[in-house]
Amino acid sequence: FFLLVSIPTPPFYFVVESETHFSSDTDFEDIEGKNQKQGKGKTCKKGKKGPAEKGKSGNGGGKPGGPNRMNGHHQQNGVENMMLFEVVKMGKSAMQSVVDDWIESYKHDRDIALLDLINFFIQCSGCKGVVTAEMFRHMQNSEIIRKMTEEFDEDSGDYPLTMAGPQWKKFKSSFCEFIGVLVRQCQYSIIYDEYMMDTVISLLTGLSDSQVRAFRHTSTLAAMKLMTALVNVALNLSINMDNTQRQYEAERNKIIGKRANDRLELLLQKRKELQENQDEIENMMNAIFKGVFVHRYRDAIAEIRAICIEEIGIWMKMYSDAFLNDSYLKYVGWTMHDKQGEVRLKCLTALQGLYYNKELNSKLELFTSRFKDRIVSMTLDKEYDVAVQAIKLLTLVLQSSEEVLTAEDCENVYHLVYSAHRPVAVAAGEFLYKKLFSRRDPEDDGILKRRGRQSPNANLVKTLVFFFLESELHEHAAYLVDSMWDCATDLLKDWECMNSLLLEEPLNGEEPLTDRQESALIEIMLCTIRQAAECHPPVGRGTGKRVLTAKEKKTQLDDRTKITELFAVALPQLLAKYSVDAEKVTNLLQLPQYFDLEIYTTGRLEKHLDALLRQIRDIVEKHTDIDVLEACSKTYHALCNEEFTIFNRVDIARSQLIDELADKFNRLLEDFLQEGEEPDEDDAYQVLSTLKRITAFHNAHDLSRWDLFGCNYKLLKTGIENGDMPEQIVIHALQCTHYVILWQLAKVTESSSTKAFTILCDVLMIFSHQIMTGGRDMLEPLVYTPDSSLQSELLSFILDHVFIDQDDDNNSADGQQDDEASKIEALHKRRNLLAAFCKLIVYTVVEMNTAADIFKQYMKYYNDYGDIIKETMSKTRQIDKIQCAKTLILSLQQLFNEMIQENGYNFDRSSPTFSGIKELARRFALTFGLDQLKTREAIAMLHKDGIEFAFKEPNPQGESHPPLNLAFLDILSEFSSKLLRQDKRTVYVYLEKFMTFQMSLRREDVWLPLMSYRNSLLAGGDDDTMSVISGISSRGSTVRNKKTKPATGKRKVPEGRTFLILKSEESSSSDSMWLNREQTMHTPVMMQTPQLTSTIMREPKRLRPEESYMGVYPMQPEHHQAPLDYNTQVTWMLAQRQQEEAARQQQERAAMNYVKLRTNLQHAIRRGTSLMEDDEEPIVEDVMMSSEGRIEDLNEGMDFDTMDIDLPPSKNRRERTELKPDFFDPASIMDESVG
């Protein structure tokens, strides 16, 4: 018999057989069995036959899911077709058709179809095993998973979800798409048959609890995507229930004469079926949530935790009525404290999707109040991507409600606009703009079209100036402008408004800008003009100049035209107004560098050019400040461009100015150097001020035709003879002479210079071998190479004047050592000195080993010079990898020797000094990068030098005591991870050349560095970075973490992984030839220690120090007999190893039995509790740069019990509760027990 059932999407109906397992995923099944898919015209198969007919069904058609399948594989004419995994992996078929084919197979024989689906999940995990039909019929899921675990290929840690390459990236998206399409196509009937979904959920739950990472990762992803698809089905059911209820209400409210009782009955039946379907969906989601999510969101693997958080964010956004509450938000809040950045990032992106929808803000109030402080603190996250998303999330919170964030919260974000990391700064700039600049007063609506001082941007510009001054970072205006450039372009490019604020008188009632505010506005205006003209971030914010698009180039040209047209007229006025203010004038004089000089001619602006030149001339006459004079010199240089017609006009003005300065200097010098007269202070001041002006111009302009060398030479000679020349005059005379020489050399080579110490460095650079580059071999006689004494003096100067504590620096301006500005300026000077010396190292002007004294300061002065030292390391490594490695190890040896001199040889290896050297070695090791092949020879040479140093000084007390420098091996072990596996063996052989047989038997604490270093060289074969069996949390560790399955006969023993007995003569192998090429000292040779390496991939057993070598070297009594010969000793050691191997295998078999027993017990408990384990608050680790202690009372005010997923009532719940009995019992219409 058949039963007529209504479905969620009228007006179609379908018929199901009450006594069979038939399930249809579509709603166009008719009574005669003629199933026509709407829109496709394909005939659907009839329902599956009863269990007794499984072996008899089918007529040999070989259709998908038919009887021509064995063990989950398609069989057709004896040829095996592709399995479901292969089809999805290829990605060539539309996922809709793949799922439709599987559904057809399921309708024909659901057991075989489910077997194919089970094998799909197994194979997606990278397992080579296959679940057979026999296993599917007679084994529980736990037994199947255990069997598949045993057949898992442990030789490789890769599986489809972690494999690299475009094919596997596409596979992950196809895998997720397949699950979503499968649920969507089965949402009307198959998922309710209490078979398919139960089997899949049970399998995925079991796999997600596996210790095999591949199973756990793949099944968790599948379960979460399955849950997302079910949430979508539940949402559709809720919508259909609301629609059905409205239809019922509309029909019931009709008058009795027009009311259709049949339709009421149909709507009630439909409502009941929808409610039953919703109950089933709730049960499925509860099973997935409690069986998978609440366990895996705390998984030891970060990728798995990230998957869980990403999907729960989708659920809350998709079906907010059911999931957007504190019971689910708590998991996101907890996980924001995760120790991995990618998980914290998923939390923030999930929350952004929720806060973006303002309709959901009311449901987020409690969460915001509890976790707002954590979100604010994440703006300082050590992972820049996390910090960026945290700032963006706070921006969304700000837009939803400005009262949520306090002034202190906002200030924590404000200062990030000065961050050196541009994405963080840009996000902070957008937050700042939304908070302070995006609000417009209603009064501004009437003045939108006004310009200049009366424009609506005038108040915003003032606000920007006030913010800049209050931030007290006046030297970083360029960073502030760059941070807001993307979100406030119109404001920052309103130069007309800025110009009006500077030149025009304030309006009635308006407060004028103070002198400090005007200086800040000029600096901001200069930075905006530079940003518009150059189109790249300031120094330190970008990786280099990028190629501009055509649109960006057009915008750049338009901006330069606008800047030139405005400031060609306004700049002379601004200079005239602020001519006596050195700071303002210095900034204003930089504007012509960004002009389009052609506009002076095309725009007929020559008179304004003449006005500009007059103002510059007046400023040169008024000021003696070096910055102002250099700004004037650069402005003349920018305007004196021979490509433009204004060149002659500017060149004449420049020549007239230099003529006057040169004549004045010659006159003053004659009076100043008159014999028999003591120099007058006024005369000295006039000479100095004129010399400053000439020197400033000589820096950017070739003044050779004025013959300034003779005058300065006469001045310096007189100063040497008399010894009473003022210091400043000598300095500027030297500098001017320096420029004279450079301009003469500029005709042959290009160079630049600085002052004092840098002058000598520049001279060495100019006359180094670099002078011959570019085919100028004729200059070889001029090449000068500094001798060792000069190099030593240069290095001593750096050590005495650069690597000092800031409080010890007595050269700060005006002696104000407590002045922060003076300290910063002094630091810049020291950085310039260090950079000048490092340049000599990089260009091989001085020996590279002199850099050892620089490199050893890397950790101590990291904040001040870390970038310079790191760049020097990088450049020297590019020049000579081996020599750079030798320099690094030399710096560590120097620090070690200094520690020995200070503390003696009996120092404490846990002392801060020794720990600091080890940390420096670790930092050095990180600089070698991940490509071990490129640095192979350099790392090996580093180990060679380190080993020689460790054994260089024998102990005067005899060979029974360790060498004096043996502790250095503890430092050297930091570089062991950078060795290739075969190189570790070679270095180990080289190490044993320095060891005696007695050394290897020592187990006292003083020999621990040697033991530790040997272990680091012997650990090369156990790299399990991508281990198949991942570690689990410490609270859930089992025996399986420590022992793995012994190698079977199927495993091929790799070459070189058997027990090796290495003879001492083998040290001349090809792998170690390069280690011996620089050996200059005779080393003691000991009997070769046999290399004992396991034949299986397992973690080496951790032994106590006193047990480390007992299995290899037996302890001998003090009065031992003569040592055994070589062959006898080897035979004895092999016998010992065989006995140990047998004992180990027996222990592992016992451990495996325990694991199986424990696993069975876990599954029994799980089946008994129906996956209702209580969720716990996760153990979190605060990873912020500025943590303020442990997390306090996270749970306060939140309901943290694991709750059943209870879908909310439809929107008409209130109306439904008021229904009056009519033709039917209201209890049959709606069940109030289900929300």
TrEMBL record:
It is found in: Nucleus; Chromosome; Chromosome, Centromere. Residues 26-75, 1200-1235 are annotated as: Disordered. Keywords: Cell cycle, Cell division, Chromosome, Chromosome partition, Coiled coil, Nucleus. Pfam families: HEAT_SCC3-SA (PF24571), SCD (PF21581), STAG (PF08514). The keyword Coiled coil applies. Residues 234-287 form a coiled coil. Residues 37-49 have a biased composition (Basic residues). One of its GO terms (cellular component) is chromatin. Residues 293-378 form the SCD domain. GO terms for biological process: cell division; chromosome segregation; sister chromatid cohesion. InterPro entries: ARM-type_fold, Cohesin_Scc3/SA, HEAT_SCC3-SA, SCD, STAG. GO terms for molecular function: chromatin binding. Belongs to the SCC3 family. Component of cohesin complex, a complex required for the cohesion of sister chromatids after DNA replication. The cohesin complex apparently forms a large proteinaceous ring within which sister chromatids can be trapped. At anaphase, the complex is cleaved and dissociates from chromatin, allowing sister chromatids to segregate. Part of the cohesin complex which is composed of a heterodimer between a SMC1 protein (SMC1A or SMC1B) and SMC3, which are attached via their hinge domain, and RAD21 which link them at their heads, and one STAG protein. This is Cohesin subunit SA.
